[in-house]
Amino acid sequence: NELHESNPMLGHRGCRLGISHPEIYEMQARALFEGAIEAHRSTGIAVLPEVMIPLVSKREELRILKKKIEAVAETVFEAQGERIEYLIGTMIELPRAALRAADIAQ
Fold first, then answer.
1. CA 63 distance to own-chain centroid
2. 104 phi/psi in degrees, rounded to 5
3. Which residues of 31-63 are buried (b: 16+ CB within 10 A; e: fewer)?
4. Burial tier of 18 (Cβ tally within 10 Å: 0-12, 13-18, 19+)
5. Beta bridge pairs of residue 52
6. Furthest-apart CA pair in the chain: how many Å?
7. What percent of the chain is helix, strand and coil (3-state, nearest 5)?
8. Cα–Cα distance between 106 and 102 in angstroms, integer?
9. Cβ atoms within 10 Å, residue 25
10. Of these four, 9, 11, 33, 93, which has the most CB atoms within 10 Å of its CB?
């Protein structure tokens, strides 16, 4: 109920939700990295997780969450005694972000 919104398509969601409630993204990142390490151990096949941070509209949002995800990855790698490669990125899906990205590129 605390997170209910009248118009969730435009509100407090995606990366902004992860910034105000970091425990959500931390839990998801921990599960992703632990699962990838377990998959590698059980199959011997290299796993390359790709983390996408959703609904980014500003560079600072991406920076904040990337830093948090990297910290979780390091904690998991240390606890598991194994490191894996991974990627962190975003999809430019908001009109404002797309227009700003085009301006920056020029």
1. 10
2. -65, -40
3. ebbeebbeeeeeeeeebebebebebbbeeebbe
4. buried
5. 89
6. 47
7. 60, 10, 35
8. 7
9. 19
10. 33
Around 86, how many Cα atoms within 13 Å sit in the side-chain half-sphere?
Answer: 27
Tokens representing residue 98 in the block: 């797309």
Q: What is the pLDDT of residue 59?
A: 84
Check residue 10 and give its pLDDT. 59
| Contact criterion met (CB below 8 Å) for 44 and 38 | no
Spatial neighbors of 42 by CB under 8 A, at least 6 apart, are: none
Query: Is the Cβ–Cβ distance between 58 and 14 less than 8 Å?
Result: no
pLDDT digits (tens, 9 = 90+) for 12-41: 778 888 999 999 999 999 999 999 999 999
For the whole model, what pTM was predicted? 0.82
Given a cut of 50, the residues of the chain with pLDDT beneath it are 104-106
Nearest to 57 by CA among 89, 17, 98, 7: 98
At 104 the pLDDT is: 47
